[in-house]
Design a protein that fits this description.
two-stranded antiparallel sheet; 5% helix
């Protein structure tokens, strides 16, 4: 999430990764994501992921042992990587997700900070 509340994706090579950490809350099949003072949200009319002042809830489902699909409301609004942008698209066919296009798969990597 940039300083203007715009979600984007960037290569993690030679970056301060702490700036790109998302704080995730999971409850049942719902997820909220918070980074740099904003929550991840969605505008289903424009099919774009948004940055929001207040908490928005996405749904998630497991694709395989360590990859997840994140969507807003239903699988017609799946969080998708398109270049550096975060957009919403209809869920892709599983064949394409596994073998061709990984743009709808997300992994959660836990980071533990020492106090």
């Amino acid at each position: 999430m940039d300083n203007n509340r715009k979600p984007y994706f960037n290569s993690n090579k030679k970056l301060d990764v702490r700036k790109y950490i998302w704080y995730v809350t999971l409850v049942g099949d719902e997820i909220t994501l918070f980074s740099n003072g904003s929550y991840l949200g969605a505008d289903i009319n424009s099919k774009k992921a948004t940055g929001e002042e207040f908490m928005k809830t996405f749904k998630f489902s497991k694709i395989n042992s360590n990859e997840y699909l994140l969507y807003y409301g239903d699988t017609n609004n799946v969080l998708t990587i398109s270049g550096n942008n975060a957009i919403l698209e209809k869920r892709k066919n599983l064949f394409w997700i596994f073998f061709v296009d990984g743009s709808q798969k997300f992994k959660f990597v836990e980071e533990i900070e020492s106090i």
